[in-house]
Amino acid sequence: xxxxxxxxxxxxxxxxxxxxxxxxxxxxxxxxxxxxxxxxxxxxxxxxxxxxxxxxxxxxxxxxxxxxxxxxxxxxxxxxxxxxxxxxxxxxxxxxxxxxxxxxxxxxxxxxxxxxxxxxxxxxxxxxxxxxxxxxxxxxxxxxxxxxxxxxxxxxxxxxxx
Length: 162
Description:
With 162 residues, this protein is α/β, with parallel strands linked by helices. The protein is 28% helix and 27% strand. The protein has helices at 2-13, 29-34, 70-77, 87-94, 143-153, and strands at 19-22, 42-51, 57-63, 82-84, 114-119, 127-130, 137-142, 157-160. Strand 6 and strand 7 (137-142) form a beta hairpin. The chain is globular, with a radius of gyration of 15 Å.
């Protein structure tokens, strides 16, 4: 609950309005779709990756229906081979467990080690939806407030067409 509470405290401090939706725990886009109900706005999938030496970590946020071409992303950002980071790294760098990954986890990256890539197509939505560091809740926020949140984190954030 503390992880979730920290997100609400951060959003409140930034005067970011959100709509809270509770649902059973979800670990995949397919599971989330079953419980979406009346939630509107852009839906994302969030991937936590590392380079081959494990010295660089990346949060990639893309529109849920897209498939990420990891090799193309490697070339585009100029890094060595990318792969999914372990649960241990996920906990260490973002402070969350599998199924709870979202940009809101950046508040746990106090040393700003995670570089973030956001699918520019997501920003076409008026509202976006992310887990508040737990996979039993989804928060809806405006795209403008999402940018405000990202600026607050202090992490390197890049908007790309993925």
